Give the backbone structure.
Amino acid sequence: MMTVDLQTLSNAERMLWDYGVSEPAHIDLEAIAFDLKALVRYRKLDGCEARLMVNGDRALISVSESSNEGRQRFSLGHELGHWVCDRSSFRCVSDDIGPQNAEAKTAEAAANSFASQLVLPDYLVRPWIGRRPISLDTAAALAKDFRASLTAAAIKLVKRSNSPACVACHGQTRLNWFQKNRAFPAEYFVVRELHAETDAFSAVFGGIAGLSRAKREPAMRWLTGPDVFKMSVQTQSVRLPDGSALTIIALGS
């Protein structure tokens, strides 16, 4: 029997713990929704990724049938966050739903934070990570075990690591977003445009699919900051379905 400090659990984690969830396979979001009087339907949606319709003490959650499983589960967790915390109807577009938007002080951000802890609860993720390397290979394994999206798993992996690292998403012309952990030095920032000699550049402009090989390269290709030209970083990239590139950037030896 695993030991958990209940005082440290988020609302979503406490819900999972109360349901007896002690391993990733136990996280049955449809069953949780049913118990919370929310019916889940996967169907074609126009103009949104997921939707919550509230009728008294019951709800209907619609999730886009065209999304992959990891995206669907995060969307369902997002709408469950709205149902548990807000108790009002929401129509959530793609930009509303995502683990990269979990820190702002808005209802959508709160729902994203709830979904992140529901799909990838810290009390299970932390022991899973253990001493594994901070890379997209590890994130992919985490995503598989928890049936999460690679993006959500990469962000969770970086955020829960004690080693300085960040995850970034680039399009062809700009940096879409990045998330860094507490160990990452505040004086360093991710470059806005991809360097031509990076695997992420090849993924975005060349359409190369699949995970690149994790490798060390000059930090100045990825970061700006003091003495960055003297540093190196370990990186690994992958092309996402929308054509952008997701990269984990890890500092240290």
Q: What stands out?
A: The mean pLDDT is 94. The longest helix spans residues 69-85. DSSP finds eight helices and eleven strands in the chain.
